[in-house]
Each structure stands twice: as structure tokens, then as C-alpha cells.
Amino acid sequence: MDDSTGVLALIMGALAFVAVFSLVFWLYLGFCLGRLFERAGKPMWTGFVPIYNWMIWAEITGRPNWWVAVWIVAFLASWIMPFIGTLAVWAVLIISSVDLAKSFGKDTTFGVLMGIFFPIMAAILAFGDDAYVGPSVTAQQ
Fold this sequence. Notes:
- Helices cover 72% and strands 0% of the residues.
- The model has no long low-confidence stretch (mean pLDDT 91).
- The chain has 6 helices and no strands.
- The chain is globular.
- It has one domain (3-126).
- The chain has helices at residues 3-39, 52-61, 67-80, 82-103, 108-116, 118-126.
- By secondary structure, it is mainly alpha-helical.
């Protein structure tokens, strides 16, 4: 066995770890979003479907349908212009998280913290006792 075999094994092991971690993280976030959506009257499976879950998120917060395009543009921008695009993703996530938090009766501070620490705060909101109070944004088409 030469050095290249060991390096290849290390790379494959790292890729396997990243794949498993990503799958577990996606299942965790999908379950948290699905639980939130379920409490808002939508089916739980919608939390697991990429892009469609943004549509449901926009619907339960009262954002117009074109808000999903804002998410997509922000994510594409993060690939093209990593620094500015990442800031755009954070901005959209914080705005959307504030909307989601207010739709469950939480305040703006909770929403901002949710945008910054999304995996933790989404679980707190998903498994808390707060009821869905309706869309927090008046949609303008």
C-alpha cells in the first residue's frame, strides 16, 4: 500500500462523514420545520422538501409567493459572490425568521436570534407551547 491509497481512504472517509452529517442535519431541520408547519395547519412532510418548504414558510408568514425567488437569488448570490451573497442569505434568513417567530406569537428579538442560531431556535419554536396566531405580514401581490 502506497501513500496515495491512504490519502484516498482519508478523503473517502471525510466525504462519508460529511454526507452522513448532512443527511442527519437535513432530517433534523426538516423535522423542525415540518413540526412548525403542522402546527400552522400544513402537512409535516412539507418541511422536508427543498424550495417547497420556503413556499409554505412564505404562505404561513403572509409573504407573497415571489419571496421564494428572493431566497433563491440570495442562495445563488452566495455561490457567485461568497461574501456578499452570504450576507444576503443571512439577511433573508433573519427577516424570514422574524416573520415566522411573529406568526407564532414571539417577539422580534426571538426572530433575530432564530435567524442567527436557526437550528437551535427552530427546535425551541417547533417544540414549544406557542400556538400559530396567523400570518405576521400583510401580503402585497
